[in-house]
Amino acid sequence: MKVHQLACLTGSLLLAASLVSAQIVAPTEASLDQNPFGNGSFSFGSWSGLDLVQTNMAEPGTTLSKVSKFGIGIYPMYFPVNNVGVGINLNALYKDSKIPEGNSENKDTRWMAGVDLLYGIHFTRTFNLYAHAGVSFGQKNMTTISPTEKSNSNYNLLDYNFSVGAPLHLGSEGQLYFTPYVSYNVLNTSITGEKEVDSRFDFGIKMETWIDDLFDKDLMSKEHWDFYSQGSSAIDLYSDRWTFNDGTDKTTYADGGFTGGSTGGSTRGSTGGSSQSQNLTSWSFCGGYNYFFVNYFSGGIRAGIGGGSENYGWSTGTTTKFGWIVGPEFELHVPVENPAHNIYLFGEYQWGSDKMTSGTGIHQTTTKENSTHFNAGVGYDFHFTTHMVLSPQFGYRVNNTKETAGVSIFPIMGTGFGLDFGLKYYIP
Which tens digit of pLDDT belongs to each residue from 341-356? Predict the structure, then answer.
């Protein structure tokens, strides 16, 4: 998995943490009683967002191909009573790749929907604790079309997860929390004659928001607001986190399936079935931070770094991966005083590298890619709480990738328009 595919193209969590920490002042009586799990509160998952992209792919000597992708993730939660939250989770992905050479087309469709339950305990202004459980189901469809044939595979999906988190409130007011967490997740993928179980533990730090003033009716009258003035800052909540996970991916086949390798990495059941498994470990850090150097103009950084390993029981050697990406970004906002909504221009540029090594000895192979990413366009800030913003963006993207080690050294360029939205947290 490449770093820039981890949804990690958002800048420095440590810078954001230091900024919020700098805001800590003597707590008021109201802030001491601030319960993030109070009756009527809302929460939005840090992965909530939407991405719609149309990309034209080209490399030397080939005909232009087109890739269309739509992805969405929505994870709201509501607290009908103190300390108990009920939520829904919905995510979907559609990807269509049309390749003129050979007149072929690949379609990948996936959706999942489910429910979440959370029980939280409020201890002090800065420390809280919660236990969370969720279950979701869905389907995955993969279709390949060529002039001579059409193949289609439908998979059933079932996911359940459990987690414990400790939200830390680092300011005297506001709705931003830094949450160390531990979770266990199991994803079952099944089709006739085959079942795959991906189970793993995950721990790390993420940003979360707990809101008690959703769609504040007094936003326009809050004259103390000036989120776009010199010295203000913004944090992109879409994917800021640090995480490490370790687990096992096991696939079981009916009779006639995988027969196993000489290293004993497979097992055969009494009914003639077989199974194969692999151990997976990965880690990543990603985040985003913007600072207003002058009124209405901000600059910042987006960065991500990650890696991992895959150990297949039926073969020798371990596959290792490592990648990074970093770059600047800017936003130029319309100069309107104390706006509850605001239009802005944005631009960003990142460069990075991905490396994968597999096998051992004379059979070892290494693939390395260097890449650059450019995105520019127009965005819109919709403030729906005192600090939180829903921020759709429409822009033009240029992605360049070139292998510097591996099978091919030809550069690949992807260009196209994209629409996405996420959540931002403003600190005046």
Answer: 789 999 999 999 999 8
